[in-house]
Amino acid sequence: MSTTPVISNLTLHGLPQLIRRELGERALARAVRAAGVDLEAIEGDSCFIPHAAALTLIETAARAAGEANFGLLMAPQMDVANYGTYGQYIYAADTLGAAIGRAVEALVYHSHGDTMGLATQGDEARFSYGFALAGHSGYGHVANVAAGALSSVCRHFLSDRWRPLRIELDIPRPRRVAPFEDMFQCPVVFNAPTTTVVFDRAGLDARGPARAGRPIITIADVARDRRGAAPSDTLGVVAEHIRLQVRGGSISIDSTARALDTSIRSLQRELRREGTDFRSLANAARAERADELLRHADISITRIAAELGYSTPANFSRAFRNATGVNPSALRAPGSPGHPDAFALIP
What CATH number should be reported for the domain holding residue 294? Predict the structure, then answer.
C-alpha cells in the first residue's frame, strides 16, 4: 500500500448540511458509512481524512442525488475562510499575491500529497491546485470544488463582482459545457494539467478588506492548530483515523480500511511491516483520549469509560493502567467527578 494522501476535514465544510437539506439524513448516513469516516469528525474541529474517503463521500452523495454535476452545486459555497487557521492565515495577508503565497507555504498543514502554485505569463496570473487522487472515481466533483475554493481567495481580495478570465479543469470535457460556464461566470477549459483559476496579473496587488481589530495569525498558529504537518505515511494516517473514530465512540478496522480504499488484510499486512497492529494503535488512541478527558473534562470516570466504548468502568481502568502505568483516578483533580476525595470537599 503506497503512502496515503490526506486532507483537512474542513475542506468538506457545508457538505453534510447540503446532503441533509437536499437528500435527507438517511442519505447522509449512507454516504458517511460508505466513506468509512465519522460524521462528528467531518463536522468537528480540525483533523485529517484520507483523500479516498473524501472522494467516496462526495461520489456517494452525487449518486444518491442523481446529479452528474454535484460538485458544481458545492462550488459556490466553497470559501477558504471556513478552513480554520489555514484560511485565516491566508486571508490575513496584505495582498492577493501574498495570500496565494501563504496558501502555498502552509499547504503542508492542510494536506499531504497535493500541490499548489502561482505562475504568471504575460498579463495573466495562474493560481493552480493539484489533487493527489486526480483522475480517480469521483474526482470530477472535487475539481469543481477546488475551483470554487481557489476562486474564493481571489474574490476576497478583488470584490464579490470579480470573475476569472477563465477556469481550467483537469477533467474530461463533458457533453454540456454551459452549466460549468454559467456557474463560474467565465469560459471553462477542460483536460487541463491542473485545476487553475486564471485572472488578470494586476490583481495580485489587490488589497483585501480592512483588518482593524482582527487577530494576527501566523504560520505557527496554523501548525499548532493542525498538530503539526499532515501525516505523510500510512502509519500516521491510520493513527489519525483511529483518533477520529475514538472521538466518535466506535472503532472499526473495517471503517479504517474503507477510508484508505484498501482491504482489511492489506491494512493488517502494512501495519505488521511497521511493527504494530490495529489493536495496539486503537488502545493507544483510547488511552490518549482518556488522558485528555480525565485531565480536562468535568465528567465522571463511568461516563468516560462509556464514551470510549468500554463495557464497565473496571475494564476501562484496567486498560488505562496497562497502557499508562497509572490509575485513572490519579489524574483527576480534587473535587472533580469520580475523584476519591470529591465528596470530602463538600462543606
Answer: 1.10.10.60
